[in-house]
Amino acid sequence: MELILSFAIGVLTASGIWLLLRPRSFQVIIGLCLLSYAVNLFIFSMGRLTLGAPAIMPKGGFIDPTRYADPLPQALVLTAIVISFATTALFLVVMIAARGFTGTDHVDGKERELP
Amino acid sequence: MIQHLIIAPILIPFIAGALMLLYDDRQRSAKFWLSLISAGLLLLVAIRLLLEAKEAGSGGIGFYLLGNWAAPMAIVLVVDHLSAMMLVLTAIIGLASLVYSRAVWHRQGQHYFSLFQFLLMGLNGAFLTGDLFNLFVFFEVLLAASYGLLLHGSGQARVRAGMHYIAVNLAASLLFLLGVSLIYGVTGTLNMAHLANLAPMIPAVDQPLLKMGFALLGVAFLIKAGSWPLSFWLPNAYMSAAAPVGAIFAILTKVGIYAILRLSMLLFAEEGTGLTGWGAEVLILLGLASVAFALFGTLASQSLGRIAAYAVILSSGTVLAVIGFALAGGGGWMLTAALYYMIGSTLATATLFLLVEPMSRDDGGIAAMLALTAEIYGTGKDESLGAETPDGPAMPAGLTLISVCFGICAIVLAGLPPLPGFVGKLGMIQGALADAPAATFLNWSFIALLILSGLGTIIALARIGIQTFWGSDEASSSVMALEVAPALVLIALLGVMSIKSEAVLRYTGNTVEALQDRSLYAYGVFGAARTTVPMLPGTGEEQP
Predict the structure, then answer these.
(1) Which of B271, B296, B512, B544 is the most buried (most CB within 10 A)?
(2) Total number of domains constituting chain A
């Protein structure tokens, strides 16, 4: 499981960075999305990987914490998802505005002049 | 009651901003007054917190446990000398840019005042919080508001610069998250004070992971602080922002500086751990590189807005280098002077941003600017948008006053006596020379760059000043009183700062002492008193 997860994070990050460095604004936004997925998975994995372990402990009594999943990273992921979703939506609006102003989807607002 | 004052700087702008969202922009005047009241209250609260910290000497530190949870469990707000100082600075610049925007700018787009309040809320929260993830949340609050404000007024240049700004900052936020989660994965805590206690005890196997987490965080903060080579987005974004927005943006970079200062003094300043002085050289080198970059950038700039943006990088770079020297074991005096310099240079750059527009109005005039914006909005002549004249009376002898303000800003930024820029730079040079036998190549290059950057700034600003004030044949353009007044007040504050240098330096000295005595922060949080809650009848649970 560890191998699959780390592989997934790695592939997402690599594709995200590659797309982020592309000149088209749509590629940039998809790159940012992929990067944020990778980061969310990474935060999640920082609570250690467990299978079938509940995150909420029952009330009272002695509890063996190793049998439960760490709830904090899950809460952090939730916050991170909401924030990245909102900022991506905003970026999309700015992207469309830039397209309207410049008539091109190049991030610098003009096509590179070919020699 | 008084203990709840600590959360007021977050709640006041939050409530004011949310309230204003309920009304549309026809109520602009009411919104302005509400924002003004909110910013005024903020200033009062910040001054009160500052005075409390000042009276308590170097040990003045206040805690606020959110939800009344004991310390490492939940989020804690901390106000100490540094936080209180930054709060006052934010409130002053916020108030000045609000008044300025009343003249023209507040009519050029929607929800200006709400966004402004949310920006203030994010800034105050970032300065107050004692929790890493909460710091991320407040960073996002202030960034989200700053995206909106940067686009305020619209136009092609703004949208293009805004797109770059948003992309860079989104990437930085992702790095921030990676760093925070790595640190949590290694130490199991997000509370800064708890982290400061745990970090030296992390076994050597896990140390590289922890350092990687801190490095990722550091990169995110350096992007915010505008350090070379992470600052190429900054000049375009800042110079294309509307004037009052540029002024409040002058303090945005200081959030990055604040976070670096706070965390590095907490984590890497303690003697005899595996983390002592970690990253000091990197900070020094990056700081020096930023100063050099800003120096060349200033000299190459043709417009005042760009020079002001480079002045922001210059001020960040200088303070960054000094933080590095302080981490490497340099004396506290250098950092004391650097904090003093930071206050002065932030006020001066904010003033410069406020002066950009009245100074360059000759080219097209205010009517041309308004026409441009009306054209962008396009949809019909809305009388609330298309009003041709700005609010408020014109200022008699406005251009003369503007030129005086400009001259004083130039003196502060270049570091000429008798204004704060000089006092700060002198102190930093003294500090760099203090360990003269051990003074290294880095110390000397810092001193050289500091002096050279002053020279570069004065050359560039004098050139612009001559073009604008002496080169224009007729002083025809009118300047509104509302546009000059905030700049005049900020200039007056700079004057007060240099007259009261001793008191301000004593305060920043106490700040540095409090920062260096990290036990105050690191252990104080755990001793913070919880408020006793009267138990509800019927709940059998004991308050632990």
Answers:
(1) B512
(2) 1
